[in-house]
Amino acid sequence: MSQPPPPPPNEPPKSGGFGPPQPPQQPQNQPPQPGAQPQPPQPPAQQPGYGYPQTPPPPQQPGYGYPTAPQPPQPQPGYGYPGGQPNPYAQPTAYGQPAPYGQQPPGYGGQPGYGYPPTAPQPAVDGGRRKGGAQAAIIVSAVVAIALIIGGGIWYSSSSGGDGRKDDTAHSGGGGGADGKDGKDATGGTSGGTEKVPANTASKVLFEVPAPKVEGTTSITVYGSWLTSKAYVKTGVASVTGYDPDKGTELWSVKLPGPVCTASRQSTDDHLTAIVYEPAMPTKAKPSHGCSQIAALDLDAGKKLWTRTVKNGDEPVRLDNVTVSGRTVAVGGTSGGAAFDISTAKPLWSPKPTDTCYDAGYGGGPKLVAVRKCGSYDERQLHIQTIDPKTGKVISEYKMSPGIDYAAVVSTDPLVVAADVGDSAGDGSGISDFFSIDNKTGKLRTRISAPGKEYAARCDDISKLEYCNGLAVGADRLYIPTEEHEGTGQYSRTNEVVAFDLGTGRQTGQRADAGDGSTLTPLRMDGPNLIAYKRGPYNKGGRIVSLDGGSFKETTLLENPATGPGHDAETGMLPNYSEVIYRQGRLYLSGVFASTSALKKDLVVAFGATG
What we know:
This protein is an all-beta fold and 611 residues long. It has 1 helix and 40 strands.
């Protein structure tokens, strides 16, 4: 499905830009107004799990597993379960074999070479792109408080997998790892990684947090979850709350005047991060007040350090994304953006829009990457820029071919972006190709073809540039899952995870089969190894597994209960539409929407190993 064209600079976005796209049952499939909260995904409530046999439907129904629009699954009976649908892979094809560079894959853009990069990279130039500190054309609000807490390391993860630790996010260089007899090393950890295999991998429910009630509006976003050595932190309706990681007791809560629109997936080593929120709660008369407030949070102390706004003239800018890189908070939207020091709130720089260029947003973490849109409204060209987080100076730049309207930042080091070239993905995932780019030179290393009908990774929220799900980058490789397809058993569905070399664009030969009735979703790296979530059939709980970086041998780290309230809560947390954190025997699943639904739901369900 084609994604909507971007609005021109200095105009608000035509869609709210928060969360997965609106469900298609809305009248005439109209997008929300700027800043409006979207409809939430509605996973099945207490229905039998994946693989549960159902009466086969008439054969004329469409094949299972291919969505008709870029949206989260709707609460139809049997979502994620086979239901006897016709086999969409009756004519099997090889997964993800990329076309040779320079040749046209089928269906791209309707003309030879559409969307392919130029034969030579463009030189990176600053060209007065940004204004520094005192010269920045921004007005900021007063400081609420400033604090700097020095502490240990922070662990963060989400459905895309990054957890904020350098050895658990993106890696460059070769992978590998010893292949022990049982997939474990001599210390009890998986080969080459830091995750230890618990003495008893069977888990129990540590705690559940009920979903908050929403009044006067259909749904409110609750993006953001983090795990530190002291607290599990989760956004709620107009709040951010820290919980004891084992007991779930509330440690602290920061109240906000309005709902959280988006949260940084990154954080600093001393537990600081940033969020964007509305200045007031939505009402029937005014369903959105605009996502204009930026705040820095101390995740251990439970403090809001400061609040700022960015203005375009006299109006506050509506912000679509926020990220953290080093000590810098970078925020962006179609009408402007800014960068601040995370501990002092000092303005560092702001993007300098021109008649034809503006920063669409940023990806953070080890490096800071800007996606800058240039050209007229109907002739966009994206510039992927690695920038200095302290000054905003452009370090390197890669210009994507005209006709590629949107790109998401999958990883900043190594630099990988995803794009739907010529709207060819066809499944609403926002991904048809991945681009591996050299951070230092701005040269394209390789391009990886990943047709939406074959692969299940998603970057379907075009305004949140680093909110891609179901993939991981490490050891100079890209790990992505295939789409579900028929297994060997009756009514069974399954998928695989495959690896691509970021230097050559070719598959490495590593392939992990989920097994009949199960599906695998990459979460993050653990040294050279891949941590993945295995969603089981109806009579099994989910699992956390480690895939050895060399052999891809699977080691189970955690296995959740097959029955009971925890199992029911887990089946409602679909990995592509939830936030997933796993660390040393503890698993946290959380939702990203709160709604007026009368169904009993959890905001958070946490599991821990019993031994």
